[in-house]
Amino acid sequence: MSGCSCKEAFDLLLGYVENTLPKGERADLKQHFVDCPPCLDFLKSYQAVPQLVRDCTKADIPKAVAERLMSFLAKKKA
Amino acid sequence: MFTPPSNSVSDSQGLNALASNGHTTGPADLNADEALVERAKAGDSAAFDTLVGRYSGKVFRLATRFVGTAADAEEILQDTFLRVYRKLDSFRGDSKFSTWLYRVATNCALMHIRKNKRHRAESLDQGLPEFTDEGYLARHDIDYGRPARADEILERAELAREALLGVQGLPEIYKTVFVLRDLEELSTEETAKVLDIESGTVRQRLHRARLMLRGHLQRAVGEAA
Asked: Do B56 and A57 touch (CB under 8 A)?
C-alpha cells in the first residue's frame, strides 16, 4: 500500500484533480489510487461532479423573460 | 436601503477583471462595457439597455443555478438589473463591469434565498466520506463515475432535478463558491475577488461543496439503481 491513508488522500483530492500538488505528494496519491480501488472510484465520481452539475443546470434565458425584464426596467426608469 | 449582510459581497469594491463576452476590447471600443457604462451614467438609456441585453442571459443562468426555478430566477434577474441601474454611479471602474455585476447578482440571489425559507440549505453532511480510526475509507459507495453512470441510471430530468436540489442544499458559503467557480467557470482567483475571500478559502470551500454534491448525487443514484 502507498504511504498515504484514505483520509490523507481525500484531503488532497482537489489539489490532485487541479494538478497543484508537489510532485512527491502527487506520486504518493497516484500510488494510493492504484492500491485502493474504493478511493479510485471516489476520485472518479468526485471529478465528475462539476461537469455533471454544470450540464444539468444550464438555463438559457427565455425570450419572454428577457422582454419582461426590459419592460420592468423601462417602468422603473420612467 | 440595501445593506449587505456581513458575509456577503460588497457591491462597490473594485476588483480585477473578469472575462466578459469578449466585448471589452479596449477604451477605444465604443461598445466596450466601460464605454457603455460611462454613457449610461451620463443618461444614455440605450447604452444601459445594451448592457442589460449583453448580460441578462448570464445573470439568469447564475440565478437559476442558485434558486432552481425560472420564476425565482426572474425575480433575481430583475432585482439585479434594477440595483445596477440605481447604483451605477457608485461603480468606479476599479474592476470590470462584469465582475461588479456578478457581485450584485450573487448578493441578490443570496438575499432572495434568505427571504424564502423554501430555499434554505439542508444538511448534506451525510454525503461526506467517513473514515475508520486508521484513516481508511469506511464505506464503499456505488460510483456513478463508472460506466453505470448517473446519467445512465437516472433520467435526464431527474438528474437535473437532483443536481439543482443538491446545489440549493449547499450551505451558503459553499454554494456561492461552487456556483461561481464550477458552474459559471470563473477561475479561483476571479471567484475570490467576486466574493472578497482568499483563494485558499475558495479552494477549501470548493472541495467541501464537491464532496457534499457527490454524496447527494450518490444517494440519488443509489436509490434509483
From this structure: no
Neighbours of B189 (CB within 10 A): 11
Residue B26 has pLDDT above 60, yes or no: no
C-alpha dist (Å) from residue B224 to A60, B25, B46, B154, B185:
28, 49, 51, 7, 30
Taking the C-alpha atoms of residue B101 and residue B81, their distance in angstroms, rounded to an integer, is: 9
What confidence tier does B160 reach under pLDDT thresholds 50, 70, 90?
confident
Q: DSSP character for B183?
A: I
Minimum distance, in Å, between the CA of residue B32 and any CA atom of chain A = 20
The proportion of chain B whose per-residue pLDDT surpasses 90, expressed as a percent, equals 51
**Chain A residues contacting B via beta carbons under 8 Å:** 5-8, 10, 13-14, 36, 38-39, 41-42, 44-50, 52-54, 56-62, 65-66, 68-70, 72-73, 76-77
Rounded CA-CA distance B151/A51 in Å is: 12
Q: What distance in Å separates residue B13's CA from the closest CA in chain A?
A: 24
Question: How does residue B124 score in pLDDT terms, banded at 50, 70 and 90?
Answer: low
pLDDT value, residue B7 = 39
Nearest C-alpha of chain A: how many angstroms from B87?
A: 13
Query: CB contact, 8 Å: B73 with chain A?
Result: yes
Q: Is the pTM of this model over 0.90?
A: no
* ipTM score for this prediction: 0.88
Residue A38 burial by Cβ neighbours in a 10 Å radius (0-12, 13-18, 19+): middle
**CA–CA separation, B163 vs B158, rounded Å?**
8
Phi-psi region at B208: left, alpha or beta (left = phi > 0; alpha = psi -120 to 50) = alpha
